Amino acid sequence: METPGSQSSLHRANLERVVRAVRLAGSLTQAEIARTTGLSAATVSNIVRELKDGGTVEVTPTSAGGRRARSVSLSGDAGIVIGIDFGHTHLRVAIGNLAHQVLAEEAEPLDVDASADQGFDRAEQLVDRLIAATGVDRTKVAGVGLGVPGPIDFESGTLGSTAILPGWGGTKPAEELRGRLGVPVHVDNDANLGALGELVWGGGKGVRDLAYIKVASGVGAGLVIDGKIYRGPGGTAGEIGHITLDESGPVCRCGNRGCLETFAAARYVLPLLQPSHGPELTMEDVVRLARDGDPGCRRVIADVGRHIGSGVANLCNLLNPSRVVLGGDLAEAGELVLGPIRESVGRYAIPSAARQLSVLPGALGGRAEVLGALALALSEMGDSTLLEGASPVAAPAFT
Fold it and tell me: How many whole angstroms separate alpha carbon 289 and alpha carbon 279?
């Protein structure tokens, strides 16, 4: 038995600190582990050697700053995690290992609004199919990250707004899938997972504070403050789509008038162009046509960008993020939408906040949310089971 404060318990804590740092980052050099954990270089070297001997981590040669270094990552067979992303029109599932390698990924069309049970059935089937296709050991599944396009009450685990997902009212998505899959399931809304995906895998790497703006059927923001997703006490932080731009404007699905969403979301924007471009027009079509020079589509995208920029300016004034990452189909418009966003930010944000802000398209495209779900599962799992093979011999130095 380890006595609290003893050398063995302190060593165990240091092992877990190193494993957690590597697990969250995917891979780190030993110098980066020392900076991240605050442990000395000698302690890190001893712990990495112990973890390598126990089969918990893999060490490969690399370079850092032009110098030879060793990259440390968790063993590829130490465990797997699953990411599930429910969009309004799709279901996407990915399987990854603890070394941040995506082993399999698949998406299929799905009307998520129609029925929660149908969505859960399809998710379970797709998970089973991918596990069978990859041949991974199901007992190695450490957890599941789940994304849904609506606010989650984190106290009860209930999907909050029936106006956004009428077929899901009162459901507890994590509890439902936990019962079906038999492993821990962690749930968050899609914008938060998009932010987490870009933070860990994409355009937010190395940034401690950012806002991920997703524009699709609705408009939402995932907020990262000091390297962590900020959800607020009720889980509804980041509902940027319901900032009021015009109190006499169109009625929003939330019941208010003139929300940003009514000027930017696909369900409100597409009807502006369908009389001239046909009833089957999609947001993807609008972006493609705009990039090809269609004047109507270019005008609508520029207007949407200016409206989004007004909401981003409010975020700048309140939170002063250093980076805004635009996700969803609209991000594919590039400077056609990013330029107007920056224009509005420059006009409405405090000058010092606007000068510090960079506005970029997402690096992950439609994969941001499912990769964020993988990152959520990785961040929530414990480290103790990963250390079962580690040697109990204490390292000679502690910091």
Answer: 15
Q: Is 372 exposed, middle or buried (0-12, 13-18, 19+ CB in 10 A)?
A: buried
Q: 3-state DSSP call for residue 396?
A: coil
Is pLDDT of 397 > 50? no
Helix (H, G, I), strand (E, B) or coil at 213: strand
CB-based contacts of 395-399 (< 8 A; 24+ apart in sequence): 395/11, 395/14, 395/43, 395/46, 395/47, 395/50, 396/42, 396/46, 397/40, 397/42, 397/43, 397/46, 398/7, 398/10, 398/11, 398/14, 398/43, 399/38, 399/39, 399/40, 399/43
- Bigger pLDDT: 314 vs 63: 314
pTM equals: 0.84
Give me 66's structure tokens. 């032009």
Task: Indicate the angle between helix axes 7-25 and 41-53, nearest 10 degrees.
Answer: 80
Alpha carbons 379 and 308: distance in angstroms, whole number: 30
Q: How far is CA 90 from CA 157, 189, 215, in A?
A: 22, 15, 15
Q: Which one, of 306, 86, 87, lies nearest residue 218 by Cα?
A: 87
Q: Are strands 102-109 and 90-97 parallel, antiparallel or unpaired?
A: antiparallel
What integer pLDDT is reported at residue 389 of this predicted model?
46
179: amino acid identity, one letter: G
How confident is the model at residue 185, as a pLDDT? Answer: 95
